[in-house]
Design goal:
- The complex is a heterodimer.
- By secondary structure, chain A is of the alpha+beta class.
- In chain A, 37% of the residues lie in helices and 25% in strands.
- Chain A has an eight-stranded mixed β-sheet, with helices on both faces.
- In chain A, helix 2 (69-84) packs across helix 5.
- In chain A, strand 9 and strand 10 (169-174) form a beta hairpin.
- Chain A is elongated, with a radius of gyration of 19 Å.
- By secondary structure, chain B is α+β, with helices and mostly antiparallel strands.
- Chain B contains two helices and ten strands, in the order H-E-E-E-E-E-E-E-E-E-E-H.
- Chain B has helices at residues 2-17, 154-172; strands at 28-35, 44-52, 58-64, 68-78, 83-88, 92-94, 99-102, 107-114, 124-130, 134-140.
- In chain B, strands 1, 2, 4, 5, 7 and 8 form a six-stranded antiparallel β-sheet that branches. A four-stranded antiparallel β-sheet of chain B has the order 6-3-9-10, with no helix packed on it.
- In chain B, a hairpin with a 4-residue loop joins strand 4 and strand 5.
- The longest helix of chain B has 19 residues, at 154-172.
- The chains are: A alpha+beta, B alpha+beta.
- Chain A binds chain B through residues 64-69, 71-72, 75, 78-79, 110-111, 114, 139, 143, 145-150, 153, 155-159, 174-180, and chain B through 36-39, 41-45, 69-70, 72, 74, 76, 78-79, 81-88, 90, 104-105, 108, 110-113, 144-145, 152-153, 155-156, 159.
- Strand 8 (152-157) of chain A pairs antiparallel with strand 5 (83-88) of chain B, so a sheet runs across the interface.
């Protein structure tokens, strides 16, 4: 009886070990290298995506005047980073502006650091940014708000992208994805990075 | 909600049968208000649920708040394929016996250019101006997310709700325009 019991446990163990991890996010069929870029950090200096090998990178495109979608996503970023505890340094969260005119480095830095000090705000000149938006399929369009004290808003793709420790684009998440789902994928990618190093 | 509605009907029937002039009209309540914490100079957002327990619809026409350069009713709209847009909403109808949810990814009060930060421990006071009910005050505490003490999956539910409303809107059609973002849940 006891033998049968341990055999059953072994069987379960081997099954769970064989099953590939199922991502919560939308996955890429053949994970390819995430398009590389170099942009200006809001807190000074430059950041090249390729230099973040060894870290899991989460990326979101937004703007600081956005009152609803962007703060909702950055509040999730905060929850993810806080939930990771001392493993948070294995994750980089990048917030890339879609509104360089209003998002000066100062404004951008103040905005992202209010959510979590580890969130990196990135900006650049119009050409640099347009290339990055295009590489990640980010739709960006400035629109008048009509009868409003706010001069314009920016309609944009609101998706979070996850890049693994090898620099491959692995998954992305639609707006409204519970932060726990992203966290679970990030934890898996951290583990995968640790196993391969 | 159903029992509330039938109670409402019963009461309405009773008052009619008593031949008194019926007390009718919209009855607006604001529930679960909260604001997203934000720094001074930036834009803020306030969320809540409008509940109309009356027997007549009402319309939210505008909002006033002392904390920002302007307070406006806005709606985030998903344009398909994860593209999010935002527009000013000039009137939001709250149907008789119905509710309208202001939640992330949908309707919200946008506070433009905050004159002071919104921090936990404060209370954001706003006055909602309704067509029939007049001024209704909202007290919204700043907090990081909608449900700090509730089931986190509610967040998803709110988004799903927004999505379902979106398709309803599409059916109601272009004629009514995009601004009538109403939810009927009775």
């Amino acid at each position: 009886m006891r033998l049968r019991h341990s055999a059953f446990v072994l069987l379960l163990l081997s099954l769970s070990a064989c099953r590939p991890y199922e991502f919560k996010g939308t996955t890429y069929v053949d994970p390819a290298a995430a398009p590389d870029f170099e942009l200006a950090r809001a807190d000074g200096g430059r950041l090249r995506l390729g230099d973040l090998r060894g870290q899991v990178v989460l990326m979101f495109f937004g703007f600081t005047s956005c009152p609803d979608v962007c703060p909702t996503t950055l509040a999730e970023a905060k929850q993810i980073l806080e939930s990771l505890g001392d493993r948070a340094n294995q994750v980089a969260f990048l917030f890339i502006t879609v509104d360089p005119e209003r998002d000066t480095p100062e404004v951008l830095g103040d905005y992202v650091s209010a959510f979590h000090p580890a969130i990196v705000g990135l900006t650049g000149d119009a050409e640099e940014l347009a290339a990055v938006w295009k590489a990640y399929g980010i739709f960006v369009q400035r629109e008048a708000l009509g009868d409003s004290a706010e001069s314009y808003t920016v309609t944009h793709t609101a998706r979070v992208f996850a890049v693994d420790t090898e620099g491959n684009l692995r998954a992305s998440y639609t707006f409204g994805t519970p932060y726990e789902d992203i966290l679970q994928d990030v934890e898996y990618l951290i583990g995968q990075g640790e196993a391969s190093s | 909600m159903k029992s509330r509605l039938s109670l409402g009907l019963a009461l309405a029937a009773f008052s009619l049968s008593a031949c008194a002039s019926p007390v009718s009209g919209p009855q607006i309540k604001v529930e679960d208000a909260w604001a997203r914490p934000a720094s001074a100079g930036f834009n803020g957002a306030v969320y809540f649920r409008l509940v109309n327990e009356g027997d007549q619809a009402d319309r939210l026409l505008g909002v006033q708040g002392p904390l920002a350069q302007a307070a406006e009713v806005h709606e985030t709209m998903q344009m398909g394929n994860d593209i999010m847009s935002m527009q000013a909403a000039s009137a939001v109808e709250v149907p008789a016996g119905g509710e309208v949810e202001f939640a992330p990814g949908g309707l919200h009060i946008m506070l433009i250019a905050l004159e002071q930060p919104l921090e936990s421990g404060d209370i954001v006071s706003l006055v909602l101006r309704f067509e029939t009910s007049g001024d209704v005050t909202v007290a919204a505490p700043p907090q990081p997310t909608m449900n700090t003490n509730e089931n986190p999956s509610t967040n998803k539910a709110a988004c799903a709700k927004v999505a379902s409303r979106r398709s309803e809107d599409a059916e109601i059609g272009a004629a009514a325009g995009w601004l009538m973002g109403t939810t009927h849940r009775s």
